[in-house]
From TrEMBL:
Any one Gene Ontology molecular-function term assigned to this protein's record: phosphoribosylanthranilate isomerase activity
Official protein name in the record: N-(5'-phosphoribosyl)anthranilate isomerase
Annotated EC: 5.3.1.24
Keywords assigned by UniProt, alphabetized: Amino-acid biosynthesis, Aromatic amino acid biosynthesis, Isomerase, Tryptophan biosynthesis
All copies of domain N-(5'phosphoribosyl) anthranilate isomerase (PRAI), residue ranges: 6-219
InterPro entries: Aldolase_TIM, PRAI_dom, RibuloseP-bd_barrel, TrpF_fam
Gene3D superfamilies noted in UniProt: Aldolase class I
Pfam (any one): PRAI
């Protein structure tokens, strides 16, 4: 029970992060790509500093979310804030993912965007074999033509199983994002058993992170 990994993404508020200090959250995501949740380097540094104060004995990993970044920009970010994970949300190929892993000594999460109607958007193949060894986790998210994710919409969950089989075959953790919230994450975990779940808009009220919704989401995930 409670083994599913939780990632809360799109944090921008230091006070909200402080109020999460006793929650069993595994990863905190900070968005550096174009988004209404985008953070500056200065704010990211302040937020990541708060992770050192986590009270449950397990400091969450810090995840930076990027869409088709240049290596020079990643250099700038990593020189200012020390991320544990770089999450790539664009059309980054396996070669780029491997360069990021080797250059910065971080884990790399690669996102595949799935259309809400059940048609894969990013790859003709399920996942190109070149990604094996180049990524540390695969994350499924709902396709968004503008921001590449964070739409708050679910995709066709029946597609998860084929990705799950691929990930299990290659020992790669599978995260699921896209439209998750306290009311539906239990169904997802019960039916598909992903390694981890990733939420952003589903724990917001009026576009801002809501600590009560965050608590409800984490509690729901960890009780299953």
């Amino acid at each position: 029970m409670g083994n599913t990994v939780v990632k809360i993404c799109g944090l921008q508020d230091v006070e909200v992060l402080k109020s999460m200090l006793n929650l069993p959250v595994d990863y905190i995501g900070f968005i550096f790509a174009k988004s209404r949740r985008q953070v500056t380097l200065e704010l990211a540094a302040e937020l990541i500093l708060q992770l050192k104060s986590w009270q449950n004995g397990q400091q969450p990993g810090s995840v930076g979310v990027f869409v088709n970044p240049e290596l020079d920009y990643l250099d700038q970010v990593m020189n200012r804030v020390r991320l544990d994970v770089i999450q790539l949300h664009g059309q980054e190929d396996a070669d780029f993912c491997l360069k990021v892993k080797q250059r910065f000594g971080v884990k790399v999460f690669k996102v595949i965007q799935v259309n809400g109607n059940g048609i894969e958007n990013s790859h003709e193949q399920l996942v190109p074999k070149e990604y094996i060894g180049a990524i540390d986790a695969l994350l499924l998210d709902t396709f968004d033509p503008v921001y590449g994710g964070g739409s708050g919409q679910t995709f066709a969950w029946e597609q998860i199983s084929q990705y799950q089989m691929w990930c299990e075959e290659h020992n790669i953790p599978l995260f699921v994002a896209g439209g998750l919230q306290p009311s539906n994450v239990g169904e997802l975990i019960t039916n598909y058993h992903p390694y981890g779940v990733d939420v952003s808009s589903g724990v917001e009220s009026n576009g801002l992170k809501d600590i009560e919704k965050i608590k409800a989401f984490v509690e729901r995930v960890k009780q299953i």
